[in-house]
Amino acid sequence: MLISILLALAAPTAAQNLRATLITPGAPSVTVTPALTVTAPRLTVAPLALPAASLTPTLPAPAIVAVVAAQAAPAPLASFVQTQAAAQPALQALSVPNPSASGAHAAGVSLEDALTGRKSIGAVFAAPVGPVNGIGRSEPAVSGVSYAKDISARQRARLDESLRRRKAGWYRGLSRMGITLAGPESPKLKVVKAETLSSKGLAAVVVAEAFTVEWSQGRTRGGSFRVTVPAKDPEPEFRRLADPAVPDAAQVVVRFKTGAADADIRAFLESQGLRVISRGYDGTWLAGVTGRAKPAAAAKRLLSDPLVLSAAAKLAAFAEADQALIAFRAGADETALADALKRHKLTVLERTRDGLWRVGTPQGRADKVRAALETEAAVLYARTLKADFPESRQAIVTLRTKDEDALRAFLRHHGLTVLDVLGERTFRVAGTISEDAGVESVVAVGSLPDAAVDAAAAGAASYKGRPWSATEYNLNWALGYGSLARLGASAAQLARYERLTAEAPVRGGGFNPWSGD
């Protein structure tokens, strides 16, 4: 039986005719007839016709034989059901008012393939998406964008058009802003400000729309950016803005063990409900708590993780009498260091420029904690922050070696407290020193004559002004100050040195900015 289809597709600008013919013995005839007033085709099914038996074989026309030989003839009823099911998507696509030329062509090819059983290239077509009207052709790159009340309808429509027509540009720009579109939580965008950019001149012409957007993704991630949508092309242009400020009262200072990757640290902090603020030059991380969480409680929770070395609220406050300074041994095991801090309930407040750890101790237990720390294998020495020792009991000690074991044994043997580090082998200590073979020299603090102080001040003042630069003066001033401290100058003598150099006149009317460069 011969099945013929004549398909007339009406489009706003052009008409297309498609004719498909299939020979299937014993199959019903299927005719697609377009209505006169509706562009959707209508499917009519003729009654089933049974094949007639004949003793005399007959051959079809050569052209028909070629088609029949290419495919096996299915059962009549099964062939009809399969053909009808295969043609339904194409018929639904053609039922849309005013289909596009490319869509109508694809639907026609698909309908022909359904009736002939072929697989044509390009027969895959999209489901109906409604009328083509500019911005209604697809979904936006990000859904659920909210706007401030003062954003006009025209500006909203412009941004919505860019979100729909330039999705690839939005995907790239949002990724650069730090937004993860493929994550478990969808980002939320809020347009807080819109600005119309016009050209300068007598006839001002709108050249672009600029939008300030605040975004959030979950509890821990957020920020803001500025996106500009040109008037001639809705391709967006992104620029990151400063993140919203987090108050100091909601910040936590965290130190991680060596070897932890930045990506792992960020993922860990976010998993703990903390928002990463910055990474310090000394390896510290600033993170902000979210919701109603307290920084102290968040820091205590972080300390239970083996990745964390120390954690404390940024505004953790301890009285000077409840603070201590700790010098850990170089290369000390970080796990042992962290265990010592936890065992004695210490809160790390700062790492000084000298490499000392300033910690807060439980109230009223600073002296006991200091004594207990001296028994820790990872600790070189420790002292309370407010250590009042008279200068008559202070001395400048220079050891014969800079070995840490020798220093630790020397301090424990004599019961000394290190007050300051003046060099690799020189220390200002408090206590009573007896004869020791490991000591190279001992100078009592306050034994330096004032004449030596005046001479050092005059030498530093000679670099104050031309032909010397300010850098050279500061260098020589620091060298003179350090030399006096190692020679046993008292606190009053060091203050005298500072006063004399400050009162010295500047030579030549000022420093030479080009000297020493």
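the 2nd protein, sequnce then structure:
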Amino acid sequence: MENKKYRMAGMVFVLPSLLILCLGQTPVAAQQNKFRFDRISVEHGLSHSMVYTIVQDHKGFLWFGTQRGLNKFDGYSFTVYENNPLDKNTLSDNDISQLYEDKQGMLWLATWGGGLNKFDPYSEKFTYYLHDPNDPNSLSDNHIQTIFEDHSGQLWIGSPHAFLLANDAGFDQAQDQLLGKVGVALGVAKACVSSGSHIKNQGACG
């Protein structure tokens, strides 16, 4: 496994959700003295200053998708996962556009040029899925923009040219009868499902 460990001593990270909750219950005068923001940068171990996506997993770890690899942050230290061409269990590409944790605790990574990756946090191994022109069940594009999960646990994969439905055999392009609306604009894929399985309310449907 190609990863690097960095140490950041004495770092306190205030989660946005916790901050919002506290701000709603704390007088304005007290807010100015209670909260302090610390800047996280490459000097602290972040692999790249360009961060495209952040997700917090069910254990509380923060994951950062950057232009140069996946970063795991435990509140004190960073672990960085990068592509190693000699190891098939590493990232397929370092340019990460979105992260998503599914109901099984697997971390899915949309990459810009390296297809779709699935990271198992228990084994710390990556499985990647790429476009294969000879396989109709493969990804339609290696440039992935977005990942959503509906209420049944079905994964939806958005690329510049198609909206895909993940299944055990591979990936199917979403059919018109399944979708009330599909659009890809400004790098964001949006879909409203009319078959009874609705994508989680994360701004995808409006």
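The chain is about 5% helix and 35% strand. The first strand starts at residue 3 and ends at 7.
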